[in-house]
Structure formats: C-alpha cells, structure tokens
Amino acid sequence: MTGGDGPGRRERAASGLVVGAFGVSALGGAGFATVYATGGQTQLEGLALAVAFAGLAVGLAVWSRHLLPNGGYVEEHEPFDSPPADLRLAAEALAGPESPVRRRGLLAMLAVALGTLGGAALFPLRSLLPFDRERPVHALRTTPWAAGVRLVRADGVPVRPTDVPDGTVLTVFPEGHRGRGDVPAFAVRLDPARFVVPPPGGNVAGVVVYSLLCTHAGCPVALYLKETGRVLCPCHQSNFDLLAGARPIAGPAARPLPGLPISLDADGFLTAIGDFTAPPGPGFWSLK
Amino acid sequence: MITRWLLRRLGRSLDDRLRTAPVLRRAFAKVFPDHWSFMLGELALYSFVVLVLTGIFLTLFFEPSTADTVYSGSYAPLDGSRTSAAYASTVRLSFDVRAGLLMRQTHHWAALLFVAAIVLHLLRIFFTGAFRKPREINWLIGVTMLALALFNGFTGYSVPDDLLSGTGLRILYSVTQSIPVLGEWLVFVAAGGEFPTEEMVPRMFVSHVLLVPAALAALIAAHLGILVRQKHSQFPGPGRTENNVVGSLFWPSYTMRTLALFAWVLAVTFALGGLAQINPVWIYGPFDPAQATSPAQPDWYVAWGDGALRLFPAVEFRIFGHLVASPFLPGVVFGGLTFAGLYLWPFLDRRHRRGQLSHQLLDPPREHPARLGFGVAVLTLFAVLLAAAADDIVAKIFRIPVLDVLSILRVLALALPIPAGVLAYLVARVLQASGGRGVGDLTRQDVRSVRRAVRARVGAGVGAVTAGSGTPPPQDWAAPADADRIELWRDRAGRWRWRCRGAGVLLTANQLYLSRDEAERAARTAYGDLPLREVEPPGGAVGVPAAMVERAGRVAGRTGGYLTLAAVAYWRSRRSRRR
Ligand code: FES
C-alpha cells in the first residue's frame, strides 16, 4: 500500500471484496433453498445459512471499515441537570395551585381504594391451584401408600420377595398410582446380618423398601452400590447407607430416605402396611 | 439514482406527516465510541432477535401439553411409543418437520449465546464503572433482563418434557418448596399442585413465549431509549472529556458495523444449530419421575446454582419446629444474595467515591483496584461453582471418586476467591504505578515499588486500602491538555461546523449547524473554554480519520488489505481469463 494511488487502490480492492462477499452470501442463500427443496438436511441447511450470513457479515464489515469514515467525530454531551429555572417551571406545572397533588385527603382515600383493589386483584391467583386439589401441606405429607396397597413394578405386575434381584434395586409403585410424583420406591435385597440400624420399614426375607426420592431435591436415587450397600443420587451425589436406615453419609442431603413398612399379603405378594415412615422427597416448612 | 430518488420521495412524504427531518438528522449523527467492548450489548440484542425469529417457527409446531399421545414419525426407536404431546411434538419437530431441527438447535444455541453476551456486557459495565451516575437505571434494567433471561432459558429448556429437563425442573421445584413459610404454597400455586402436574408445561410455555419475551422486549426498548437519551460513555483518551462523545457516526459507518455484527450472530448461531447437536431429547427419553439421567448437567447459565447445591454442606435446621430444608441456603439465599448484590452495586460502589458526580468517562479497570479485586474474587467463586456442577464428569475423566472431587472443590471455593481478588488488586496497583500498558510490560522494579507502597498503606490503616484508591478524577474536565483549540468555519453552502485540534487529536463535529451560534454552543459544551478560532473551510473531505484512530486500525487494516488484494487479484485473473 505504497505509492500515490494507495488510497484509490485500496478502495477498489475493498469494493471488490464487498462484492465478492455479497456474492458468496447470495450463493449461500440459494444453497439453503436448494437443500430445503430437495428434501432438507440439517447440517447442510445450517452450513448454507451460515455461509450466507457470514458473507453478508464480511461484506458489511469491510464496507464499514474501508469505505466509510471511522472514528474522528465528536458530539457534545450536555450535562443532565436542568437549569434551576426549568426545574421550577416543571415543579409548578406539576404542583400548581389547582393540582391534585395538593389535595392530601382525596389522595389518601384514592390510595386506600387503589391499594384494596390491588390486593383484591391478587386473589384470582389462587385459582392457579385448583380448589378441588389437595392443599400443599397435606399433599406433601401423605402419599397413596397405605395398609394393604400392593407393591407393583413399572409394568403393573405385583412383586414377590423372590422377584427382587440380588445386586440391583427394583423400582416399585403402589398398585393403581403409577403416575404420581411422590410414590416411587425401590426394593432391595440385603443381608439382615449386615444391618447396623434396622430398616425403618422392616424387612421381609431381607427385602427392604425405601422411597426413591432423594431427600435433598427429589431426584430418584437410582445408583446402587452393592458392596457398600449404598444408593447414590445422580443429581448432587448424596449417598445413603441402606445398612444404617438409609442415613445420608455424603453430599447435600440431610435426612434419611423414608422407609416403606411392608409385609406379605395372603397371596405372597409384597404389600405396604402403611405410608412411608416420613414424607418422601425434599424438605418443606411444615415437615414434622 | 433510482434508490436515491425513492429515498428522497419517501423521506419527503414522511416528513410532511411527521416532521422527521430534524429527528433523523440528529439520529444519523449520533456518535458511537469505537471500542469492541461496546458491541457486547448488541451481541445480546441480536441473539434475542435470533431467538424471537427461530422461536416463532418453533411455536407453530410445538404442542404445550402433557396429554398422552402416541408418537408416530420417522424416528424409529420412539415410533409408536406413548409419551406426552409436548415430548412427541418436540421429537416430531426434530425429525419430521423439514428444517425443524435446524431451527430448534439454532434457538438453543442462540439462548446460550444470549445469556453469555448479557454476562460479558455486565462484566464490561462492572469493571469500567459504567453503572455509575447517571446510568444506574440502565444497570437495574440490565440486571432485571439477566434474571428474566435466566428464567426464560430454564423454562424453554424444560417445556419439551424430556427426562433431563424434568430432573432440572424437579430440583427447581424443590428449591422453591424449601422457602420458609411461603414455599409450599408458592410452588403449589405456581405449578398447580404436587410435582409433577399437568399444568407445568402449558404454564411454562405461556411464560416462555409470551410473558417473559414481552417483558424483555419492553425492557430492551427502555434500555435503548435511555441509552440514546444519555448518550454513550467512553474510555478516557485524547480529546475526550466528560462533556463529549468521540467515535464514529451512527450513519453510515456504525450502521454497517452493527448490521455486520447481526449477520455474524446469525452466521454463528446457524452454523452451530446445523452442525453441533444440542439437547437431543430423543436420547434422554420422556420425563418419568422414577427415572434420572446420569451424569446430568444443566445449561451453563444455571450451572452455578447447581454447583452451589452440590458444594454446600448438608445443613438443615428447624425454627420453632419448622424445617428449613437443605436447598434453601445454597439455592434461595445464595441466588437471592447474588441478585441483591447486583441490584445494589451502583449504590454500594458510590459510597466509596466523593460526591455524586455524573460520569461519562469510564474507569480503566486498573484505576479502581478495589472494584477490580472484588469483581475478580466473585468471578473466581462462580468459576468454582461452574466446575462443581460438572463434578461427576471431572471425577469420571480423572478417575477420582466424586466425593473427593467434591471436597477439593469445597476447599477451592473457600480458598481461591480472596487470593485471586488480592492478586488482581495488586496487579492493578502495579500497573497504575508503573504506567505500563499491560501486564507484559511490567518490570520487577515496578512490582517492588508498589509492594513497598502497599505495605506502607496497610501499616497506616487497612481502611485506606479498600476505600476508592484510584487516582482522583480531575475536577476540571473541560480543558484537556492534548486538545488545544477549536476551529470553526462556514462551508460553501453557508452551514457551520467545528472541530477540535491538538497534538494527535483531530475531531470533527458530528453535525452541520445552520447558525454560528449553534455550532459555537456545541463546541463550548464539548470543550469548555478552549480558544476558538474561525478558519477557512478545510480542504478535502471533512471527518478524515484522526491519527490515533488510524493507528488503532492499522493492524486490522493491514491484514484486511492483504486479504483484499489477494481476493481482488483472484477476481481480476478470473475476469481476464474469461475474456
Ligand atoms: S437431589 Fe439428590 S443430591 Fe440433590
């Protein structure tokens, strides 16, 4: 870029580049249309659009950098405090002799009216929790598990103690309530001789049942480590010791997993003899 | 020819009805500072536009409902399976709607970019003190937009009703539920009952596509309106004062530049959307409260909250027999403190400065070591939290038990931030004292002299170190030494203009004025009592780039020049070959 014709040459070169870039952009656009029209393909569509917009970007950037003046301008920046006279005029306009601002008593009553109305307007928010649904505290404290409710697998089949495998956990649900969020539990086979603390829900031939929901924030504690008899929560790595009443031993969970009291019904299926020993899942204000 | 004629016709007919000429003239002449960091906010703005455009496409195909449906479509592993309508329509959108996957993935990438741009913009504003008076309102609006962006990102991520996002939603539900007194009712009213409810997806959908975007659009309008009214702040430099703005004109150069940025955002998001898979919900499967994915990581912008939940020890306590559950402190209190700190920052920062001066000149970060140190300390903490959100992955990669990783991160979260902040503080002091341009230019001598100075200060009283320790801003902004006169002239068409000239400074007024008075008033506002001379109209084009801008652009210019030459040579050779 030396010599007398430098600027002129540079300008021509830049215009050439801009023209080329916009050309590439047009090609990209046409490419996208073609890919779409011939059946579509995500990668090619993205690439074509990216080329189209990148061409546009390069063209515009070169245009602004090399063909337009950059920098070198100054604009005045007036201070923001108005002259006192202006301020006075504005204050007079707002709070002149007839101004409503001066009617203290009326204003106070207006505030009362608007405040009440505003408060009343909040009431319909309550409709967001339908009135025929359980209230929070009751809903959180109880689950459909109750005496006589059989334990079923995800596919609805009732469970016998012998169905509980050795080495993994079996996710179970109360019969007829598969979809609810607070019911999932897991059955696991442990050697009763290893219990440091007896399981809160008791055991049937070594099978114990606990709530599946982590007491930290409610994720399913899906990972079972057989050697140590622990379950692990994948969300924030809380560990629960199944040999010690599912006591939390690491991670952010602070309460043990609630146990499910179980026994066998007349047909030899596992059945609950009550609700969990504590509300399942994360803690809440009214948790006793 | 035709374009210009059309524009003139259009301009005239608009002006006849709205009298737009004076407004437009001033709008075109608005000056934007030339610094890359001023583009970060625009980056966020354009990501938002991409989000709206791709999002509208998605709403036309997504079904916000948890009603049971059977997915039937070209994704064979799920064909014929019963899932919620939301999940099925997301899979259909990804496999059976042409260009649907492109739009979905671009939308997701644009969301990540959107929040990243907001955070970077916020950091720029923070470290340069751009939040100070008169810009506190825009800071508050900006922080609100950050909160809304985080929330909208979360709801958008959750509506497909897949297993991964369902787990995230379960956690958010539990965190909200942990709030003392109000939590249970709050979360039941918001979600319509105990987790999971049928109402969650449609409610999040309305919030995601209507309520929050509308609020964001309104806040963006306010943010920009205030920006235009207050004009830009700028870094200190030759010819720059508290009473002017130096840079490029809105029209044409800045318009082209900002449109180029818009096109870049589109190019990058569509490239990512086409080529980089993101959130493949068909792999995760539909949501089921009895299942979880592992490892499970949320999007990066909520990962700090997830990291806090992982790192914080298991603390649960009772108040009058009521339980304060373990997610409360790291989830609600920590998040609340973060945003309370952000909202209050302009007012906390002000206490360290004398008076309530308005500021148009920014602080280079080193000029305010205490603020820099504090910011770096907080950022370090958040970096550790982000790492903590990936602790299971770290454990897998390095084959360390995850609980050991957790303990290490806990120590780091406590031990790293303060030393990092102190280090940043000291580096800023050293830079300040040495006047060096960057960390690379420092000598050992510089470091030692500052160490001595700091030690003396600490000896004199710790308070002195934390109080605003930047060089006090000179009170008389009106007469910078490097600009030494104003030149005023009348051009051949009888209009007035002025410029400021000095050593290394040549800055031309952004507007033409109809009277000498107007021009002089503007010059006086910008430069106070500099000597003002009437001169002959300068020859050549007005507004040739000043020497210093030229210097800044030289490196880029040279690279661009070579590329350009190569391109043109190629183009020419092609042309001659064709002949
Ligand atoms: S939900 Fe289980 S550790 Fe957090």
Automatic annotation (TrEMBL), chain A:
InterPro entries in alphabetical order: Rieske_2Fe-2S, Rieske_2Fe-2S_sf, Rieske_Fe-S_prot
Regions that span the bilayer: 13-37, 44-63, 106-125
Keyword field: 2Fe-2S, Disulfide bond, Iron, Iron-sulfur, Membrane, Metal-binding, Transmembrane, Transmembrane helix
Domain Rieske residue range list: 156-271
Presence of keyword Iron-sulfur: yes
One Pfam family of this chain: Rieske
Domain of life: Bacteria
Role of this protein: Iron-sulfur subunit of the cytochrome bc1 complex, an essential component of the respiratory electron transport chain required for ATP synthesis. The bc1 complex catalyzes the oxidation of menaquinol and the reduction of cytochrome c in the respiratory chain. The bc1 complex operates through a Q-cycle mechanism that couples electron transfer to generation of the proton gradient that drives ATP synthesis.
Protein name: Cytochrome bc1 complex Rieske iron-sulfur subunit
UniProtKB/TrEMBL annotation, chain B:
Protein EC: 7.1.1.8
InterPro entries noted in UniProt: Cyt_b/b6_N (IPR005797), Cytb/b6-like_sf (IPR027387), Di-haem_cyt_TM (IPR016174)
Keywords: Membrane, Transmembrane, Transmembrane helix
UniProt signal peptide: none
Cofactor(s) required, per the database record: heme
Taxon lineage: Bacteria, Bacillati, Actinomycetota, Actinomycetes, Micromonosporales
Database matches in SUPFAM superfamilies: Transmembrane di-heme cytochromes (SSF81342)
Annotated PANTHER family: CYTOCHROME B
Chain ranges passing through the membrane: 43-62, 109-127, 139-159, 205-228, 259-278, 328-348, 369-388, 408-428
The protein's name in its UniProt record: Cytochrome bc1 complex cytochrome b subunit
Domain Cytochrome b/b6 N-terminal region profile: 2-236
Catalysed reactions, semicolon-separated: a quinol + 2 Fe(III)-[cytochrome c](out) = a quinone + 2 Fe(II)-[cytochrome c](out) + 2 H(+)(out)
